[in-house]
Specification:
By secondary structure, the protein is mainly alpha-helical. It has one domain. The protein has 3 helices and no strands. α1 runs antiparallel to α2, α1 packs parallel to α3 and α2 packs antiparallel against α3.
């Protein structure tokens, strides 16, 4: 999922937090559907800290 990570980091860098929240929800939904939500949630938390 490197392309998702890069896209998410770009959104945060541009301070588009509403879109970042939407993307986070979509990615979390996909992760939940495929049974890897914990790994994705951790990755998203780290990326959000980078954007602060």
């Amino acid at each position: 999922m490197p392309e998702v990570k890069l896209f998410y980091e770009k959104i945060i860098a541009e301070e588009m937090f509403e879109q970042a929240d939407f993307i986070e929800g979509v990615v979390a939904g996909i992760g939940g559907a495929f049974g890897d939500y914990d790994k994705i949630a951790t990755m998203l938390q780290k990326m959000r800290r980078i954007g602060e």
